């Protein structure tokens, strides 16, 4: 039987994950009281229980009984019961934003400050993060991207690394991304903006990609960037134990050259054992194409 414990910070996406697991055939129970876990394991391990995939959501809502969970989990492992822990995290800034948007009340912030509740929760469930088999930082993930990460682990049984790498294109006209770990300037490449028949296309179009990558300098840069980022992604994962890495590629308007290079880099790094996503921040900003900036 595959037994998964879904836990982590409130607002980090546990409901989304449990729904995704349920869609793949898991029997899911959310907010199971800690004292009932041992009994629940016995019931689901019984031969009369027909589902061999079970997921349980446990979080700070368990209240005063949460500290008991560590000893229960240790006991389960001592008794050779196999289970996996998926820990969902997000930055405090993102969690505050999510709570304000949904107008939900944090379990530990009733009548108090939201930030204080989040930090108190982070401290109280720190032991679960240390015990986790998988950690997903959902700070910059869309719902469909989070579901995709979950499916990789529990449906497709792929080897999973906690690092999620975002390759982002942007336009310097609209500012450098604040969350970028690495920033690369590709404004030296051929600019399709000055070709009337190409101006309104984007780096997602083959004509633009061919135009931008038409020079030896562009090809050399891409080869060098791919080699360097292959090294740096591995270094960040193995030495810094990070879960998120943002590589930002910038051109003037974020529509042509940066989009092309971001797409090319994404395709070249896909064979690495990490999760990659490509995001074009300014591709739909027409003010640059219209000559308003």
Keywords:
alpha/beta; 293 residues; 9 strands; 39% helix; five-stranded parallel beta sheet; four-stranded parallel beta sheet; elongated
Gist of the model:
The protein has 293 residues and is an alpha/beta fold. It has helices at residues 14-23, 37-45, 68-78, 92-102, 114-124, 126-131, 143-154, 206-212, 216-240, 257-269; strands at 2-8, 27-30, 53-57, 84-89, 134-137, 164-171, 182-185, 244-251, 275-280.
Please, how many helices? 10
- Major beta sheet summary: 5 strands, parallel
Look at the helices and sheets and give the structural class. Answer: alpha/beta
Rounded to an integer, what's the Rg over CA atoms? Answer: 23 Å
Mean pLDDT value: 88
User: Strand order within the widest sheet?
Assistant: 2-3-1-4-5
- Work out the number of β strands: 9
The shape, in one word, is elongated
Query: How many angstroms does the end-to-end distance come to?
Result: 59 Å
Q: Fraction of residues in helices? A: 25-40%
Query: What string gives the helices and strands in order?
Result: EHEHEHEHHHEHEEHHEHE
Q: Indicate the low-confidence ranges by residue numbers.
A: none
Percentage beta strand:
15-25%
Structure description:
The protein is an alpha/beta fold and 293 residues long. It is 39% helix and 18% strand. Helix 2 links the parallel strand 2 (27-30) and strand 3. Helix 1 (14-23) packs across helix 7. The radius of gyration is 23 Å and the shape is elongated.
Per-chain topology:
Blueprint: E1 2-8, H1 14-23, E2 27-30, H2 37-45, E3 53-57, H3 68-78, E4 84-89, H4 92-102, H5 114-124, H6 126-131, E5 134-137, H7 143-154, E6 164-171, E7 182-185, H8 206-212, H9 216-240, E8 244-251, H10 257-269, E9 275-280
Helix pairs in contact: 1-7, 9-10
């Amino acid at each position: 039987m595959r037994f998964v414990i879904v836990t982590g910070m409130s607002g980090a996406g546990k409901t989304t994950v449990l729904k995704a697991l349920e869609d793949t055939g898991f029997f899911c129970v959310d907010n199971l009281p800690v004292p009932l876990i041992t009994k629940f394991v016995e019931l689901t391990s019984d031969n009369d229980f027909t589902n061999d995939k079970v997921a349980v959501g446990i979080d700070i809502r368990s209240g005063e009984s949460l500290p008991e969970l560590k000893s229960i989990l240790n006991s389960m492992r001592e008794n050779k019961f196999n289970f996996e822990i998926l820990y969902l995290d997000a930055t405090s800034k993102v969690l505050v934003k999510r709570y304000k948007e949904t107008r939900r009340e944090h379990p530990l912030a009733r009548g108090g400050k939201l930030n204080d509740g989040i930090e108190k929760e982070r401290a109280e469930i720190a032991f679960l993060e240390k015990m986790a088999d998988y950690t997903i930082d959902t700070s910059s993930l869309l719902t469909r991207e989070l579901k995709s990460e979950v499916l990789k682990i529990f449906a497709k049984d792929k080897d999973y690394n906690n690092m999620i790498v975002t390759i982002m294109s942007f336009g310097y006209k609209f500012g450098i991304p604040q969350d970028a770990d690495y920033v690369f300037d590709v404004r030296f490449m051929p600019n399709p903006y000055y070709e009337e028949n190409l101006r309104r296309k984007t780096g997602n179009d083959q004509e633009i990609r061919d135009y931008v990558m038409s020079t030896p300098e562009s090809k050399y840069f891409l080869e060098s960037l791919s080699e360097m980022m292959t090294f740096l992604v591995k270094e960040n994962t193995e030495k810094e134990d990070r879960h998120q890495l943002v590589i930002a590629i910038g051109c003037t308007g974020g529509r042509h050259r940066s989009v092309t290079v971001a797409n090319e880099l994404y395709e070249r790094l896909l064979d690495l054992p990490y999760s990659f996503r490509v995001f074009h921040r300014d591709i739909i900003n027409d003010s640059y194409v219209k000559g308003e900036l």
